[in-house]
Every structure is written in C-alpha cells, then in structure tokens.
UniProtKB/TrEMBL annotation:
A GO BP annotation: UDP-N-acetylglucosamine biosynthetic process
Assigned protein family: Belongs to the phosphohexose mutase family.
Pathway: Nucleotide-sugar biosynthesis; UDP-N-acetyl-alpha-D-glucosamine biosynthesis; N-acetyl-alpha-D-glucosamine 1-phosphate from alpha-D-glucosamine 6-phosphate (route I): step 2/2
Protein name in the entry: Phosphoacetylglucosamine mutase
The protein's Enzyme Commission number: 5.4.2.3
Species classification: Eukaryota, Metazoa, Chordata, Craniata, Vertebrata
Origin species: Neophocaena asiaeorientalis asiaeorientalis (Yangtze finless porpoise)
Gene name of the record: PGM3
Residues that hold Mg(2+) according to the record: S64, D276, D278, D280
Residues at the catalytic site: S64
Length: 550
C-alpha cells in the first residue's frame, strides 16, 4: 500500500472533524454533503475486501427510500450478498478515523483480516439517480484507484442490478452476463417462457401501473419493458421527469401511509405497484369499487409465491424443503395462513435483508420477504441442479412441465438479493398463470389491523431485544409492561425495537380492530417513553393527534 499517496488523496476527501457514522442495517446513510470522505474510504475498503476474498466486490451509492438530499453507500460481497458483519466493523472504523490516523487504520484492517496485499483487486460501482450520486461515486473510484484496484463503473443501476453484476462476475458468467442487457435478457426470457403456459386472459389482466418513486427504477424499467412487452405491458408513473425522488410516492410512502402515491391515476380494481428509490422493494395495491384502498404487501407476496411453488414441487415428487422467512413485522394473519393453511414452516429473524437472506439459505427453497416489500426466493445449488436435471429427464409430461416451470422461476428470481423488477415479473407471471385478479390474491387472508409508531428517547440503545426482536430484554420492566397491555386486547401482539436507520424506537401493535391496534400501540409507546428515557413530547393517543406517521 502506498500510504503516502493515500494520505495525499484523502486530504482531497477530508473527513469533517468530529463526525462519526455507523455502517448500519444497509450501509452508511446520511445527508449527502457529509459523505465524501466515507465514499473515498469505502473505495479503499472495497479494494481490501476484494484482495481478501480474491473476488469482485460491489459498491452501491444510494440512500434507497430516504429523501433526495440524503445519500449512502453499501458494499456488496462476492455472491451478491450484504457485507460480512466483521467487515461492517472495519467499515465503521475506517469511516470514523481522523485524517492522521487513516494509514494506521488501513494497515490494521489489512492485518486483522489477513489481506494479501499483492493480490489483484476488482471493484464494480453503481449509483442511483440522486443529484449527489455521480460526484460521490467518483470519490469511491478515487479510493479504489489510489490503492491500485481495477474497477468498472456501471453508472446508473438499481441496487439489485449491481448485486446481479457482482454475482455474475464471481461465477464466471454462469449465473448470467454481467451487463445490463444480460440482466434484461435473463429475466425477460424466463418471464416470457413462464407465462407461455398462461391462458390468454384479456388485455386488462396484463397491464400494470408502476409508481417508480421518481427513481432509478423508472429508467431501467423503461429500457427493459420492450424485452417482455408480449407478456406484460407496464405503464410508468413518477418516472423522475417531474417529481422529486421518494416524495409522496414510492413503496415506503405507500406502505407507511397506507395510501396511494401521488402522481398515479387509479381506477377501481386496477393493479398497481410501487418501487422504492433504488428498486429493491415492491408493494402492490388497488382501489375497490367503493374507492377503498387495499395494500398488498410483502407478506402477501410471500404467501402468493409459496402457495404457487407448492404445486409444482409436489408434482415433481421430490422432497425439496420449502421454508418461509419473515420478521416480527409480518402480519399475524400471514403467519397463520402460511403455517395453518399452506402448511409451510415459517421462521422469524431480525429486521434487515441480510438476516432473512441468511436464514433462507438453510432451505432447498427459501422464500423471504419483509412486510415492507424487500425479498426474494433463494434456491440452493443442490435444488437448482435437481430441478434442471428433472426438467430434462422426466418422462411424464406433467411432471416435466412442473420441473420446467420451476426452472424458469429460478431464472426469474434475482438470486443475489431482493429485486423489485424481478419480483414484479414473478408476481405478474403467477397471476397470469393462475388467472388471479389482484382482489383474489388479496383475499388469500385478511390482514389484522395494525399500527406502527415511533418514540424519541435519549439513547435508543437502552432497548435490547431477543427472540428476533419480539421480546425486550432491557430496560427492566418494559417487556412485563408490554405483556400486561397485550393481554387487554383480542388477537393482539406488540413489540418494540430500536431503529437501525433512524434515531428513534419503533413500536408495532396489532389487534382485532383498528381502534384496538391504535390504542395498544399508544399504550406501548407510553411504556417505552416512561421506562426507556423518553424525550420531548409524551406520546399522544393515535386518534387525537392523527399521528399516522411511522
Ligand atoms: C433497511 C433494511 C430493511 C429494513 C429497514 C428497517 C436492507 C437492504 N434494508 O432499510 O431491510 O426493513 O432498514 O429500518 O437491509 P429500521 O431499522 O429503521 O426499522
Ligand atoms: Mg431500497
């Protein structure tokens, strides 16, 4: 390492004094103007990680669903996965080192992680459409270059597309071609193949309105839609030509406000969906004949996909294990439906894609979705090989067809990470094959009324949790208080957890009616305020303050 060169270059990307940031649930995220040094340093870190793993590493510049003024960065590990936890710690140390300590911290990381500095390094970079992203990705490149790393800058990409590129490059192209056309072709071919078997169900069925959050999803979907236009026609809204990124639109807005985004015309019973700002989340929704809004969230996506997969799996007669992974935010009705009606095992992990992804890898076929719309289906290598073999060998027509269908499903899911575009195509294929309307899909089960609130406390780390965030361990007495409150309502459940992305505590409650869910959420918020060092205004009942904010 040429540490003198690092010091010199770093001075051009100097860290503001006293600023400390954490590599959080999905990387660093804050106001764009505070991120230049972080980007440069993540370029440095990506080179070390690449040398250590002898693989291509990805760096994505995005702040997902955050406001346009924010930005962020995350590193992508060799198989398209989130950065390993020990390297998250290195990332935090490196980002927070004062200028004069930077060379020492770099050397330290190299030693701790046993990095062979003579190894070559290759880094791929992608960015979203934020005005700040281009300059910040140049800072990443400066970091990569000063440590002698090679790079390829893909420019504008969705986050899942960057994960895909990393995965392709580290599997010598076996997974697909590491180009944007390669991505479009792979997914579209699988979609067209899968939907061939659908009986034609009229124009209406095959049109989908997509709210692109005024983000990168719009650019990429506009390019891609020609590849699958025979099977599906998508109409883009909030395509970035007018509105502001994530402002009053996008998956996060729709999920948290439980209402349609601005900028989309919805007629009753029309199928609509929203992406988030970097297109790794998707939720569906529609208006019924009475104009009432219905959200079809990540839990229902998981239910649709798992029930669809069960049939061909049964048909091929192979005992491949299927498991569904959720978080504590999964609606109680969805868990009950999956376990009791679908008879599939359901597991709960902590919030954050990396936790779900990790658990899903334990199954031959792991379906994972957060209620907020992050998710995908992972097929183990063994399951994939088995299915591909059966698709070739099986004599009986029906069985071979089932295996072929599964083969297309494997190709259609972005196996590297949750992907709004890939998930959208899978959902559209399933609806077409099953001849389901969005209402029929929504009617798989009825969501329990629920409410989310946030509480400000002096130090949110005083709350620690266990049992996949469903139980509070500290502060003392908090879980007991929650237990007592939950007992007062029917079909109720509540939990609290410190947010990984904001300086607040999140409260979730569900119950048999909206009124009861609101009331339970309020009471739990009060308990948090009293027992966990609340600051500012005391929580108010939901119906008085109309506090529908999350
Ligand atoms: C991040 C996570 C998301 C999680 C959310 C929770 C990734 C790619 N994203 O956006 O999965 O649901 O954080 O935020 O892992 P919270 O901790 O503030 O509730
Ligand atoms: Mg996102």
């Amino acid at each position: 390492m040429d540490l003198d060169a690092v010091t010199k270059q770093s001075a051009l990307h100097a860290k503001p004094d006293g600023l400390t940031l954490q590599y959080g649930t999905a990387g660093f995220r804050t106001k764009a103007e505070h991120l230049d040094h972080v980007m440069f340093r993540m370029g440095l870190l990506a080179v070390l990680r690449s040398k250590q793993t002898k693989s291509t590493i990805g760096v994505m510049v995005t702040a997902s669903h955050n406001p346009e003024e924010d930005n962020g960065v995350k590193l992508v590990d060799p198989l398209g996965e989130m950065l390993a936890p020990s390297w998250e710690d290195h990332a935090t140390c490196l980002a927070n080192a004062e200028e004069q300590d930077l060379p020492r911290v770099l050397v330290d990381i190299g030693e701790k992680a046993a990095v062979n500095l003579h190894q070559d390094a290759f880094v791929v970079i992608g960015r979203d459409t934020r005005p700040s992203s281009e300059k910040l990705s140049q800072s990443v490149i400066d970091g990569v270059t000063v440590l002698g790393g090679q790079f390829h800058d893909y420019g504008l990409l969705t986050t899942p597309q960057l994960h895909y590129m990393v995965y392709c490059r580290n599997t010598s192209g076996q997974y697909g071609k590491a180009t944007i056309e390669g991505y479009y072709q792979k997914l579209s071919a699988a979609f067209v193949e899968l939907t061939k078997q659908a009986s034609c169900s009229g124009d209406d069925q095959r049109t989908l309105k997509v709210d692109c959050a005024n983000g990168i999803g719009a650019l990429k979907l506009r390019e891609m839609k020609h590849y699958f236009s025979q099977g599906l026609s998508v109409q883009l809204f909030n395509d970035g030509t007018k509105g502001k990124l994530n402002h009053l639109c996008g998956a996060d807005f729709v999920k948290s406000h439980q209402k349609p985004p601005q900028g989309i015309e919805m007629k009753s019973h029309e199928r609509c969906c929203s992406f988030d700002g970097d297109a790794d989340r998707i939720v569906y929704y529609y208006h019924d004949a009475d104009g009432q809004f219905h959200l079809v969230d990540g839990d229902k996506i998981a239910a649709l996909i798992s029930s669809f997969l069960k049939e061909p799996l049964l048909e091929i007669g192979d005992s491949l294990s299927l498991g569904v992974v959720q978080t504590a935010y999964a609606n109680g009705s969805s868990t009950r439906y999956l376990e009791e009606v679908m008879k599939v095992p359901v597991y709960c992990t902590k919030t954050g894609v990396k936790h779900l992804h990790h658990k899903a890898q334990e199954f031959d076929i792991g379906v994972y979705f957060e209620a907020n719309g992050h998710g995908t289906v992972l097929f183990s290598k063994a399951a994939e090989m088995k299915i591909k073999q059966l698709a070739k060998e099986l004599e009986e027509d029906k069985k071979r067809k089932a295996a072929k269908m599964l083969e297309n499903v494997i190709d259609l899911f972005n196996q590297a990470t949750g992907d709004a575009i890939s998930d959208m195509l899978v959902i559209e294929a399933i609806l077409a094959l099953k001849g389901l309307t969005v209402q029929q899909w929504d009617a798989l089960y009825t969501d329990l009324p629920n409410r989310q609130l946030k509480v400000k406390v002096a130090d949110r780390q005083v709350i620690s949790t266990t049992d996949a965030e469903r139980q509070a361990v500290t502060p003392p007495g908090l879980q007991e208080a929650i237990n007592e409150l939950v007992k007062k309502y029917r079909l109720s459940r509540a939990f609290v957890r410190p947010s990984g992305t904001e300086d607040i505590v999140r409260v979730y409650a569900e119950a048999d009616s909206q009124e009861n869910a609101d009331s339970l959420a309020y009471e739990v918020s009060l308990a948090v305020f009293q027992l966990a060092g609340g600051i500012g205004e005391r929580p108010q009942p939901v119906n008085i303050t109309r506090n529908l904010e999350l």
